[in-house]
């Protein structure tokens, strides 16, 4: 009897979780179809009280992503993340999820606007979701990233950067585009290893001991030049250090950080 009850509970739970994905898949297909159909229409508008004219050109294709944002999920399993991104009420999603064992799951077409970045900016780009692909790494934020997961990430990044011709400096972390608000991926994320595979940027460590900073080197300007929003310089510094000097993460900018930043200017 006890076993029967347990079996019923498991069956109910099983069918519930299956339902979420059925609903999500159905909603995805319907929405994608509606969006596709809406592209053939151009709604006439008014500009300065005059109705706009309409002459259709035949020369176009879909816009492509030009930025990749890496996240950690801050959740405990891929299953939990799939659920989060399949449920309507969460209003969050990502194009890809990479599990601990290296499994890559795609949840949105690359050309769709995912909801992974939230408020943020990189350079003059103030609508990150519109131009980017979001990649979520299954990681609770405190544990190291597994070899299998990083390996899959490198293969995925190689594929995406090649397909969409995304430059190395346009591979960023969520913390880079949202200083003061986001701290993912964590300090344990191997940015240097990624750069060694030609993905993302890193500085020439050999030069760190010998480099001489120009007297007029301006930290605020250099961070802005890289893409950071320096409205709060302290927050931008924290995000910068999380990525390029993860062993000494803080809001203080040291002489070493200045040299790293200066050397990075050569990489962009
Ligand atoms: Zn994130």
Please, could you describe this protein's structure?
By secondary structure, the chain is an alpha/beta fold. It folds into two domains: about 140 residues, Peptidoglycan recognition protein-like (Lysozyme-like); about 70 residues, no CATH class. Helix content is about 40%, strand content about 10%. The protein is built from nine helices and seven strands; from the N terminus they run αβββαββαβαβααααα. The strands form two sheets. A five-stranded mixed beta sheet has the order 5-4-6-3-7, sandwiched between helices. Strand 1 and strand 2 form a beta hairpin. The chain is globular, with a radius of gyration of 22 Å. The mean pLDDT is about 95. Zinc ion (ZN) binds next to loops. The site of zinc ion has 4 residues, from loops.
**Which strand order spans the largest sheet, edge to edge or round the barrel?**
5-4-6-3-7
Q: What value does the average pLDDT take? A: 94
Number of helices: 9
CATH architecture type of the largest domain:
3-Layer(aba) Sandwich
Shape: globular
Summarize the structure.
Helix content is about 40%, strand content about 10%. The protein has nine helices and seven strands, in the order αβββαββαβαβααααα.
């Amino acid at each position: 009897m006890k076993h029967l009850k347990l079996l019923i509970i498991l069956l109910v739970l099983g069918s519930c979780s299956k339902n979420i994905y059925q609903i999500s898949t159905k909603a995805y297909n319907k929405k994608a179809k509606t969006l596709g159909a809406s592209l053939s229409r151009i709604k006439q508008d008014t500009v300065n009280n005059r109705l706009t004219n309409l002459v259709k050109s035949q020369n176009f294709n879909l816009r492509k992503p030009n930025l990749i944002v890496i996240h950690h999920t801050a959740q405990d399993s891929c299953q939990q993340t799939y659920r989060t991104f399949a449920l309507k009420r969460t209003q969050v999603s990502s194009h890809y999820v990479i599990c601990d064992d290296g499994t890559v799951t795609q949840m949105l077409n690359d050309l769709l606007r995912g909801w992974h970045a939230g408020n943020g900016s990189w350079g003059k780009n103030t609508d990150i979701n519109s131009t980017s692909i979001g990649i979520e790494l299954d990681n609770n934020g405190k544990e190291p990233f597994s070899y299998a997961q990083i390996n899959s990430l490198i293969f995925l990044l190689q594929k995406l950067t090649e397909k969409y011709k995304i430059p190395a400096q346009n591979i960023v972390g969520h913390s880079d585009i949202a200083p003061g608000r986001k701290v993912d991926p964590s300090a344990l994320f191997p940015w240097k290893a990624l750069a060694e595979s030609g993905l993302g940027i890193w500085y020439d460590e050999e030069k760190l001991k010998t480099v001489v900073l120009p007297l007029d080197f301006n930290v605020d300007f250099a961070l802005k030049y890289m893409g950071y929003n320096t409205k709060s310089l302290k927050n931008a510094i924290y995000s910068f250090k999380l990525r390029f000097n993860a062993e000494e993460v803080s809001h203080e900018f040291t002489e070493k950080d200045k040299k790293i930043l200066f050397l990075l200017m050569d990489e962009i």
